[in-house]
């Protein structure tokens, strides 16, 4: 009986303690300012020891980094006016650059200030004995220096570039020396040339260096014009009546949705597909470099992706 009485006494004491605590809490709440008591209580089912959830960040205030979906193995995108690098992917890697080399060939040709109206003739020395590429310009074809430059830039005509280098004061060795000297002048420290047309895998550079080359080439109106021409016809043969029609190797040139200031494509097996461009994107001048791409259309698709994703980023800001 004593144990039963003891348990009942303990239960009564607990019950009385709970009633007292509840009354004290009620008094405290009624003594607070209206509305504060409800706010101070945790919501039904919530852990009274949990901290309030932090406020959700304003989506418009979150900055999204520019990380375009680029498939080329090497790439760089820069603001042409400020030189700000917007995107890079293996941009410091030294790699063969194929016919991107012809941009330097054009610069050296123009800086020599040789008469563009002078005739130059394709010779056996201009044949491609390294890769065995073909050309519409047969040995003995004579065109003006300007026409050869036009074909080299727009249609990536290898014999035209070789012919230009051979008809340089001091010949091709002096021409290639001038190419490397100009690269050094532009701060292209990881660039080296051994040919005027890029057929050698020893013509190497980096995406960062090529941004500098594109910016330098943009200073020459003829390079801008010739590289972005959609079509160019030349007349050859003994009577000059055989018409050769050339088209641009860059399939983005001439499209109404693109404003391209300068471009050059390139390809040899060692370099993969290459593309460099200077273009207006939503009022902003960009230099885009895509190298070492294995898909035939990948470089062009990369340029589209960069333009689309950068435009979307600008709209969000």
Structural key phrases:
Beta-lactamase, 317 residues, single chain, alpha+beta
Write the layout of secondary structure elements.
Layout lengths: L1 H30 L4 H5 L33 E6 L5 E5 L5 E2 L4 H11 L7 E3 L20 E3 H10 L3 H9 L4 H15 L18 E2 L1 H11 L3 H7 L3 E6 L5 E6 L11 E10 L3 E10 L2 E10 L4 H19 L1
Antiparallel strand pairs: 1-2, 1-11, 3-6, 4-5, 7-8, 9-10, 10-11
The CATH H-level superfamily is DD-peptidase/beta-lactamase superfamily
The helix count comes to: 9
Radius of gyration: 35 Å
Beta content: 15-25%
**How would a textbook summarize the main sheet?**
5 strands, antiparallel
- How do the strands line up in the largest sheet? 2-1-11-10-9
Provide the low-confidence segments as ranges.
Answer: 1-64
What's the SSE pattern?
Answer: HHEEEHEEHHHEHHEEEEEH
What's the number of extended β-strand segments?
11
Described by the principal axes of the CA atoms, the overall outline is: globular
What is the helix fraction of residues, given as a range?
A: 25-40%
User: On the 0-100 scale, what is the average pLDDT?
Assistant: 84
Q: How does this structure look, described?
A:
The chain has a single domain (74-316), classed as Beta-lactamase (3-Layer(aba) Sandwich), CATH 3.40.710. It has helices spanning 2-31, 36-40, 101-111, 145-154, 158-166, 171-185, 207-217, 221-227, 298-316; strands at residues 74-79, 85-89, 95-96, 119-121, 142-144, 204-205, 231-236, 242-247, 259-268, 272-281, 284-293. A five-stranded antiparallel beta sheet has the order 2-1-11-10-9, with helices on both faces. A two-stranded antiparallel ribbon has the order 3-6. The protein has a two-stranded antiparallel ribbon with strand order 4-5. The protein is built from nine helices and eleven strands. It starts with a helix and ends with a helix. 37% of the residues lie in helices and 20% in strands. It is an alpha+beta fold. The model is unreliable at 1-64 (pLDDT under 50).
